[in-house]
Amino acid sequence: MLTRLQLFPEQASTLAPQTDALFLFLLGITAFFVVLIAGSINVFMVYYRRRDPHAIPPPIHGSLALEILWSVIPFILVMIVFFWGARLYATIARPPDDAINIDVVGKQWMWKIQHMEGRREINELHIPVGKPVKLTMTSEDVIHAFFVPAFRTKQDVVPGRYTTSWFEATKAGTYHLFCAEYCGTIHSGMIGRVIVMEPAAFQAWLQSGEAGALPALTPVAAGQALFQAQGCSSCHAAGSGQRGPMLAGLFGSTVRFEDGGSTVVDETYLRESIVRPQAHLVAGYQAIMPTYQGLLSEENIMQLIAYIKSLTPEGGKTP
Questions:
Q1: How does pLDDT run across 47-82, given as a tens digit for each residue?
Q2: Hey, CA dihedral for 301, 125, 171, 147, is it positive or negative?
Q3: Which of 58, 191, 205, 305 has the fewest CB atoms nearer than 10 Å to its CB?
Q4: Which sequence spans correspond to the domains of the chain?
Q5: 204, 197, 205: which is closest to 174 by C-alpha?
Q6: CATH number for the segment(s) 100-207
Q7: What φ, ψ does residue 182 adopt, rounded to 5°?
Q8: Is residue 151 within 8 Å of residue 16, measured between CB atoms?
Q9: Whether the model pTM is above 0.90
Q10: Per residue in 104-152, pLDDT tens?
Q11: Domain topology for 219-310
């Protein structure tokens, strides 16, 4: 039998009370109508049973007021649930602008995590209390799901695309991290911990490292090294003849394609441009970029994207 703790894990994020309130509202409505309908069936079955085999019940012509009542009340309840759920979804789907960005890669059967300051983790996520955290997630193999019950957050992690999730922890402590999507034979072992720390302790942890270890490269620095090593600068850097689109200030801008379409440049578009460069050809450029699919890991691609996002226009030229 489930305990209360299993049904309602500890609330440890700002979104947990809102999520629980909607869940309990739905549970209450469901319980009310189950009791009402099941009780009515039993009462009618006993009270209106046929007592004489030859009895003929009077004809029933219906009630307009009753028809309106049992149509309007469910409609109102459904609209309450719809707008309440839509508002909560909009809150969950839009990370705050000041959120800490962390990259997450799911892989059979582990979570690989990198902070923007360079610290890496496997099956552990250290975060500060009272600060929103945005996770940008993808998978190297199959669909996984990043699930932290205490934060009431669960987001699919899908190969070939980026998904995001955010939360703000309200209590320091250690919380369970699960994969909530069956991902193979050791799915049940794909577990980890979210460690919520006081801000000062988190900063000390972030800046520390194992004794004797070299300082970890930030994703931006690692992406810059990859950018040079893979020869990207031969087409995208200043003085290259601009055989490829200029990357400085590209992220967040709108690009137009040869077929007349356009899109706002985000992480998903940049990833597709790296692994499937011919999918959407930017207007004014030839289809000469090779694919890097299979040549770069998902971590490498995220590092390249972090570097591209860091580029800012300087006289209209790419650094």
A1: 888 888 887 878 878 788 888 998 999 999 999 999
A2: positive
A3: 58
A4: 100-207, 219-310
A5: 197
A6: 2.60.40.420
A7: -60, 120
A8: yes
A9: no
A10: 999 999 999 999 988 889 999 999 999 999 999 999 999 999 999 999 9
A11: Cytochrome Bc1 Complex; Chain D, domain 2 (1.10.760)
